[in-house]
Amino acid sequence: MRTIWVLSIALFAAACSQESEVTGSTNACAAGLYSPYNPKVMKQCVDVCIKCNRGVTTTCTTSCTLKGAV
Asked: Hey, where are the domains in the chain?
């Protein structure tokens, strides 16, 4: 039981990480769209998600919100 509890805490902590997860190809694409790309700006984050990661508005908005974009 203790192992399950420790494992669940570890997974929760990993899921809540605030690190930016921009890959090299996404980073290059983002730089092409916005010269000073700021993933904390909602419009920029959603645009990059849609155009560079082939996302849709709903999932990109949710993703950007979870990453802290406003």
From this structure: 19-70
